[in-house]
Specification:
- Helices cover 26% and strands 32% of the residues.
- It is α+β, with helices and mostly antiparallel strands.
- It has 2 domains: 39-99, Double Stranded RNA Binding Domain; 101-177, Ribosomal Protein S5, domain 2 (2-Layer Sandwich).
- The strands form 2 sheets. Strands 7-8-6-5-9 form a 5-stranded mixed beta sheet.
- Helix 3 links the parallel strand 7 and strand 8.
- The mean pLDDT is 84.
Length: 191
């Protein structure tokens, strides 16, 4: 009898613990996939209907912003019959349309910028020590870029989050890059 108990103990200790294959360490999610370097936030999910001879066909349109919080941002759209694949398509599209934004050492932007995309008009202004003061899609884009101190204002009556996000990205792309010198004018308008 004692021999059988020893064999059982050895068998139990020889087996790996149950959670050894589902380890979620740094850079991995729970299901074992490697975590992406870009954070994503869904701006808008819409159900789109197409009328055909036999009835209606439903699809989902997803607008998504992806950024690494270190100066890169992209906006993408994806359409599919289910939301999960639409989100995947939007994420791939956002990574294709990625731009690099110069952020100052204080976590802000160099100067005030304005931009218009479709009917959305957005103004961004540096604001040292005040944090992020913005709403709607402007706030989402600014957080994903990694800017800490900024004021954002939407001047249009447009409620379309995709256009507002694209106007914000257009304004951020108007900032000077490393090899460009900033203009002497405090305000740079991009139309």
């Amino acid at each position: 009898m004692p021999e059988q108990q020893e064999i059982k103990k050895e068998a139990q200790t020889a087996r790996p613990p149950k959670n050894v294959f589902r380890r979620s360490g740094r850079g991995q999610s729970r299901d074992g996939r490697v975590k992406s370097e870009f954070d994503q936030k869904t701006l808008e999910v819409r159900r789109v209907t197409r009328v055909i001879a036999g009835g209606k066909r439903f699809k989902f349109s997803v607008a998504l912003a992806a950024g690494n919080r270190k100066g890169s941002i992209g906006i993408g759209i994806g359409k599919s019959s289910d939301t999960a694949s639409a989100i995947d398509k939007a994420a791939r599209n956002a990574k294709k349309n990625m731009i690099k934004v110069n952020i100052t050492k204080t976590g802000s932007i160099a100067h005030r910028v304005e931009a218009k995309y479709s009917s959305a008009v957005v103004m961004l202004q540096p604001s040292p020590g005040r944090g992020i003061i913005a709403g709607s899609a402007v706030r989402t884009v600014i957080e994903l870029v990694g800017i800490k101190d900024i004021v954002g204002k939407i001047f249009s009556g447009s409620k379309n989050k995709l256009n507002i996000a694209r106007a914000t990205v257009k304004a951020l792309s108007g900032l000077p890059t490393d090899n460009q010198q900033p203009t002497t004018d405090n305000k740079k308008i991009i139309s």
